[in-house]
Automatic annotation (TrEMBL):
Coiled coil: none annotated. The lineage of its organism: Archaea, Thermoproteota, Thermoprotei, Thermoproteales, Thermoproteaceae. It comes from the Archaea. Residues 251-260 have a biased composition (Basic and acidic residues). Residues 238-269 are annotated as: Disordered. It comes from Pyrobaculum neutrophilum (strain DSM 2338 / JCM 9278 / NBRC 100436 / V24Sta). This is Histone deacetylase superfamily.
């Protein structure tokens, strides 16, 4: 279920290998990159050919399995015309395009690249992000195919789980989740308070359905390992983590409830 390219030497890939990740060999083709990105994007990343086509190969391997957790260096900032933050291929959107899945972004940051590709390709999109990191809900209200949940500081396990449960109940098809670990309560730069409990519940909710999870913003080795182990335990029916559920601000919890009351399901284009 865990996938990483055999040539990936980053610390996140090493953590995945320690957890038993399968090594993906070989590369894909530029035609697969062009399925979602523009010719301008292809020219911008051409000097990184090995990395780009390796990322596309991992995406193809995930599609072949039908259920996968993978790492390609992040995807959410790779847009229609330009890469950002050293993210060279939006494997999440590629998988959604190939499988007809909805994309769910759960991360402290607003997924600028995924948003740009959504405007071009129109796949159903759910956005869960720190409100200080992106546009307001009103600014995104004109998109029938997207639903946004800009979170206030202080949201913890309860709020994240309510939103994830709502989305997974609304969308019964395959899902691609851009999952950040910077929402964890021990992330050194964050202001959100998810714990291993949320990741376990998310995994349990995904068991039995088609899903693809791209590891985004991995935080620290300790946070990534603990949260990823909880996620995998939930997917495979393992016990919940022993860690206590994280703290959540009462004001933040009320704001999440307010957003859920007015949330709508993204329309299919």
């Amino acid at each position: 279920m865990l996938l990483v390219h055999a040539d990936d030497g980053r610390w996140v890939a090493r953590v995945l290998r320690e957890l038993g990740a399968e090594a993906v060999e070989g590369v894909a083709t530029w035609d697969e990159v062009r399925l979602i990105h523009s010719e301008m994007f292809v020219k911008a990343v051409a000097k990184h050919e090995a990395e780009v086509l390796a990322a596309a190969a991992v995406a193809n391997a995930a599609l072949a399995k039908g259920r996968a957790v993978f790492y390609v260096g992040g995807t959410a900032m790779a847009g229609l015309h330009a890469p950002r933050s050293n993210q060279l291929f939006n494997a999440a959107v590629y998988i959604a395009k190939r499988s007809g899945a909805a994309v769910i972004s759960i991360d402290r940051h607003f997924p600028t690249g995924t948003w740009e590709l959504h405007l071009e390709h129109g796949f159903p999109l759910y956005l869960v992000y720190g409100g200080a990191e992106g546009p307001t809900r009103r600014q995104l209200a004109g998109r029938r195919e997207a639903t946004a949940f800009p979170l206030p500081p202080g949201v913890g396990d309860g709020g994240f789980w309510k939103i994830a449960r709502h989305v997974l109940e609304q969308w019964d098809g395959p899902v691609v989740i851009q999952l950040g670990f910077d929402i964890h309560r021990e992330d050194p730069t964050g202001y959100l308070f998810a714990s291993e409990t949320f990741y376990h519940k998310l995994g349990r909710a995904l068991a039995g359905r088609e899903f693809y999870i791209s590891i985004e913003c991995p935080s620290t080795p300790r946070v990534l390992r603990a949260a990823l182990e909880a996620l995998l335990s939930g997917i495979t029916g393992g016990p919940p983590p022993r860690a206590d559920a994280g703290w959540e601000s009462p004001e933040a919890a009320r704001e999440v409830d307010r957003m859920l009351k007015s949330a709508r399901r993204p329309a299919r284009r």
